[in-house]
Amino acid sequence: MQSDSPLDAAYWNTRYALGQTGWDTGEITPPLRDYFQQMALPHGSRILIPGAGRGYEAEYLHAAGYENVCVVDLAPEPLRDLQRRVPTFPAAYLLEQDFFSLLPQPPYDLLVEQTFFCALDPTLRPAYARQCAALLRPGGTLMGLLFDTEFSSPGPPFGGSQAEYKAYFAPYFVFQHFVPAYNSIKPRQGKELFVCLKKKE
Ligand SMILES: C[S@@+](CC[C@H](N)C(=O)[O-])C[C@H]1O[C@@H](n2cnc3c(N)ncnc32)[C@H](O)[C@@H]1O
């Protein structure tokens, strides 16, 4: 999906190699942490974090006892960083590949979104929603954060609006939450939507 795009593995690898990673918060962000703390998901559930980067959410969930947390990223450097920080994280769950080439075998119970959707060429947004739905079991959850703002400089990140995003997800998901986040980190306050969508049965 990404091979003829300028936003390919080489692009992202270079960003990591040059330290041009302004999106990297260095720790799990409060909206995801607070959601994880109250979610009633069995520890054996299959969880996927697409475009995970250094995977602070994966680290958090692993420490909380979730055994089947997978991260996928085109770039090897952030996956190596996660492995270095968390040596007990299963190497088999560090997937260095294109999110769009993943297969739902077996399907996932939960997908976690943070600054991956906004990193994709916007023409891929319908395919992102379709692929999330394909990877989840019926009733499975896609949750996370989407930017509800436009950016002045050329992307990534690419911005958008609640109305635009809803159109991508509506064919596959029931909307549980699609609201302004109240606990964003300071630089993102007032610019993020907290989303929690259930795949239609
Ligand atoms: C803006 S960064 C966000 C990383 C992480 N979610 C975070 O919040 O720190 C976007 C990430 O998506 C990865 N990426 C971009 N396109 C991808 C694709 N098609 N499949 C898998 N990973 C991809 C990049 O390598 C990069 O690590």
Automatic annotation (TrEMBL):
This is Methyltransferase domain-containing protein. One of its GO terms (molecular function) is S-adenosylmethionine-dependent methyltransferase activity. SUPFAM superfamilies: S-adenosyl-L-methionine-dependent methyltransferases (SSF53335). The keyword S-adenosyl-L-methionine applies. It comes from the Bacteria. PANTHER family: CYSTEINE SULFINATE DESULFINASE_CYSTEINE DESULFURASE AND RELATED ENZYMES, PTHR32183. InterPro entries: SAM-dependent_MTases_sf (IPR029063), TPMT (IPR008854). The keyword Protein transport does not apply. Pfam families: TPMT (PF05724). One of its GO terms (biological process) is methylation. Gene3D superfamilies: Vaccinia Virus protein VP39 (3.40.50.150). It comes from Hymenobacter elongatus. Keywords: Methyltransferase, Phosphoprotein, S-adenosyl-L-methionine, Transferase.
